[in-house]
Write a structure and sequence with these properties.
Blueprint: E1 5-6, E2 25-27, E3 31-32, H1 35-45, H2 50-53, H3 55-59, H4 70-80, E4 88-99, E5 108-120, E6 125-135, E7 141-152, E8 165-166, E9 169-170
Parallel strand pairs: 1-2
Antiparallel strand pairs: 2-5, 3-5, 4-7, 5-6, 6-7, 8-9
Length: about 170
């Protein structure tokens, strides 16, 4: 696979870790934020901050209206990326999450994923580092994050240092 943006398929997420190319990208489908989404997320998390749930209060805020919870946007990003369950075993970590812009009701977000690194863990698994840019419908970045996932299939990098092992198992 050449370094390219893969718009229509999720083939990148079905590849062996060793087949992933650094720099390969994928753009997810979109999802539009609704009033119901804000209420449901507030109900599920208990985060009833008025920026998300009180139209009067939010109208006087810096953002001029209600906006999606940052954690809602991040959670949706995980769901929008078409991870193949035959390849991607688990989300291992999130790093450097930055919320860049508010996401008001009516905005549509999508995720641009970029392969940033592949490190072999053992004979059957690798850690794959991904860069995420969550974009709104105007292609503005609303969230940035580094994501690390446990991927079936070994990359080309050597096994980790034995100090990272515990009783034959890689510490996750």
């Amino acid at each position: 696979m050449s370094v390219q943006t893969i718009e229509a398929t999720a083939s990148m997420f079905a590849a062996e870790a060793g087949e992933l190319e650094i720099g390969a990208e994928h753009l997810s489908r979109g999802r539009t934020v609704t009033e119901a989404d804000l209420v449901a997320f507030a109900s599920q998390t208990g985060d009833w901050h008025p920026q998300h749930t009180d139209s009067e209060w939010a109208a006087r805020s810096r953002f001029g209206g209600r906006i999606a919870h940052g954690m809602l946007v991040l959670s949706w990003a995980v769901g929008l990326v078409p991870f193949d369950p035959d390849r991607v075993v688990a989300l291992r970590g999130l790093d450097s999450v930055t919320f860049k812009r508010p996401v008001p009701v009516g905005d549509t977000i999508r995720v641009r994923t970029r392969v940033e690194g592949v490190r072999r863990l053992d004979e059957g698994h690798s850690l794959v580092q991904l860069g995420w840019r969550v974009l709104n419908q105007r292609d503005q970045v609303v969230l940035r994050a580094r994501v690390e996932v446990l991927w079936r299939g070994s990359g080309d990098e050597p096994l980790p240092d034995p100090d990272d092992l515990y009783e034959g198992q890689v510490l996750l």
